[in-house]
Design a protein that fits this description.
The complex is a heterodimer.
Chain A: E1 2-7, E2 12-22, E3 25-35, H1 37-41, H2 48-70, E4 79-85, H3 89-106, E5 109-114, H4 115-121, E6 133-138, E7 143-150, E8 153-159, H5 165-175, H6 183-190, H7 215-225, H8 228-232, H9 235-261, E9 265-269, H10 276-288, E10 292-294, H11 298-301, H12 306-316
Parallel strand pairs in A: 1-4, 4-5, 6-9, 9-10
Antiparallel strand pairs in A: 1-2, 2-3, 6-7, 7-8
Helix pairs in contact in A: 2-3, 4-12, 5-7, 6-9, 9-10
Chain B: H1 2-11, E1 16-22, H2 25-36, E2 44-48, H3 55-65, E3 81-85, E4 89-94, H4 108-112, E5 117-121, E6 135-141, E7 147-153, H5 156-169
Parallel strand pairs in B: 2-5, 2-6, 4-5
Antiparallel strand pairs in B: 1-7, 3-4, 6-7
Helix pairs in contact in B: 1-5, 2-3
């Protein structure tokens, strides 16, 4: 079955074409993304109004590009999977309305997909993984551990109690004057820094070893930068020490959760999966514990439509469809 | 203190202020809980303070005071608006990523003038916010773990809440 995936939950508009034969088994025919970082960089953050206006302009061409790259036409598409939440409502609506229009015009089935489900299943795009597996979702908006037990059956076993890890990266980058988005800048700067130079306290959530808290590390950096001593530190050392603290706080609960779940595979997904130190450390820790780490290619870690097509695909091949009355939901629960 | 409240009721323009010092995140939360105990629904709270000052921390306490679970209050920076339903609705809003927001962004009007309590982080990013009737909670660094928390309001309704806060807890 040939499936068109559409994703526009935040600042990227994306489309993909997938050929799927069974749940989780897919051949990626194309995956395209129109990124808005340049538009938002000028503002130091995401501006919802700009994001949705830009989506209006780019969504059509992005879909056309995906179809072209897949070597097919709209009439070949047999099902449409589109993100309906969570995310920014204005942004979500652009993709959802476009998808509804296409479904209405072509008469093919449409399913609304939860963006997080897309991230949880993204590791399957390029790998065969036996379920249950443990997924660590780390992005600017989410930090959570899920047991992926089956298609449509996900159990959250840990989550952040305050900030998302990616949010901590972005906010610390802003405090350090590194611009937006800041995760990449910190990753690069850290390579030249001493990870042990600056003392950053690791936070643990009492009584909940698989939960996360990143508000404290952000505050620690803010406090440090407010002091003479802190400002005297090399930015490279500060970045490396901060990054090491965040990585420590992600790796430990992930390993604990994989043990509890008895999962052989830990899948790392979400935009922060692009962080090289996190990849290295988690791979090492998993191997030392007799498990393997699967991290999708970067283009499937960050927001993309291939994962949405995959997450909608297993429902479409079962013959499911959603009514065209489905709505976008900013806080859609999994 | 009673005078200050009375004064503001008459003129409607006197600013009522209360300043406290918090020595821990726990204490910051306590002040959120205390403030919540005086709310009746329909209030607008504007939180102002640098990154890491403790705005979300304060709102965690506020949530507890509204019979919500503290652990359900996450940073709303990414989603921008999070709704919670306790003693009455709590709209937890974060304008951090907006730089400059107008009431029409995100349908803010609907949340800010509702039956529930709207708690807005980075309130200073709201264009025209300063002219609205709201209770300002300004949190600033006063040392490593120490924060200065200033409550202030210019309209009689929110000013009365601060007067009560002083009478009961100062």
């Amino acid at each position: 079955m040939l499936i068109l995936g559409i994703e526009s939950s935040c600042d990227d508009a994306a489309a993909a074409v997938l050929e799927t034969t069974a749940p989780g088994i897919a051949d990626i025919r194309s995956s395209t993304v129109a990124n808005q970082d340049d538009i938002h960089r000028a503002y130091g953050g995401i501006v919802p109004e700009l994001a949705s206006r830009s989506h209006v302009v780019t969504i059509g061409p992005v879909i056309e590009r995906a179809l072209d790259a897949a070597g097919c036409r709209l009439v070949d598409i047999e099902g449409i999977a589109v993100t309906r939440g969570p995310g920014l409502v204005g942004s979500l609506l652009v993709g959802l309305m476009f998808a509804k229009g296409l479904a209405q015009a072509s008469g093919v089935a449409l399913v609304g997909v939860n963006h997080i489900e897309g991230h949880l299943l993204a590791p399957l795009l390029e790998n065969r993984i036996a379920m249950p597996y443990l997924a660590l979702v780390v992005s600017g908006g989410h930090t959570a551990l899920f047991a992926v037990e089956d298609f449509g059956r996900y159990r959250r076993i840990g989550r952040t109690r305050d900030d998302a890890a990616g949010e901590a990266f972005d906010k610390v980058a802003k405090l350090m004057g590194l611009g937006y988005p800041g995760g990449r800048a910190i990753d690069e700067m850290s390579r030249r820094g001493n990870r042990k130079r600056v003392r950053i306290p690791r936070a643990h959530v009492r009584g909940a070893p698989m939960d996360f808290s990143f508000s404290g590390v952000k505050t620690a950096v803010a406090t440090l930068l407010a002091s003479e001593d802190g400002r005297a530190e090399r930015p490279e050392d500060l970045a490396a020490s901060f990054q090491e603290a965040v990585v420590d706080m992600l790796v430990k609960p992930a390993i604990a959760a994989a043990r509890e779940l008895g999962a052989d595979t830990i899948a790392l997904t979400g935009g922060v999966a692009a962080n090289s130190r996190l990849r290295d450390r988690l791979a090492e820790a998993a191997a030392a514990d007799g498990r393997r780490l699967v991290a999708p290619a970067l283009k499937y870690c960050t927001d993309n439509a291939a994962m949405i097509a995959l997450a909608g695909g297993y429902r479409l091949i079962r013959g499911e469809r959603d009514p065209l009355s489905i709505d976008a939901e900013a806080n859609l629960a999994l | 203190m009673a005078n200050a409240a009375a004064e503001s009721e008459e003129s409607g323009a006197t600013v009522v202020t209360m300043v406290i010092e918090s020595r821990s995140p726990h204490e910051t939360k306590s002040w959120g809980r205390r403030l919540a105990s005086l709310l009746e629904g329909g209030e607008l709270l504007g939180l102002i303070g640098d990154l890491g000052a403790g705005k979300t921390c304060f709102i965690k306490g506020l949530a507890r005071g509204l019979s919500l679970r503290e652990e359900d209050i996450l940073s709303p920076t990414f989603t921008m608006i999070q709704e919670h339903h306790g003693r009455f609705p709590l709209y937890h809003i974060d304008l951090y990523r907006l730089e400059e927001a107008t009431l029409d962004d995100l349908g803010l009007r609907e949340y800010l003038f509702s039956e529930g309590v709207a708690a807005v982080e980075w309130f200073e990013c709201l264009r025209g916010g300063a002219e609205m009737e709201y209770l300002a909670v300004r949190i600033s660094y006063a040392g490593a773990n120490i924060r200065r928390i200033e409550f202030s309001a210019a309209d009689s309704r929110h000013a009365q809440i601060i007067s009560k806060l002083k009478r009961r807890f100062a």
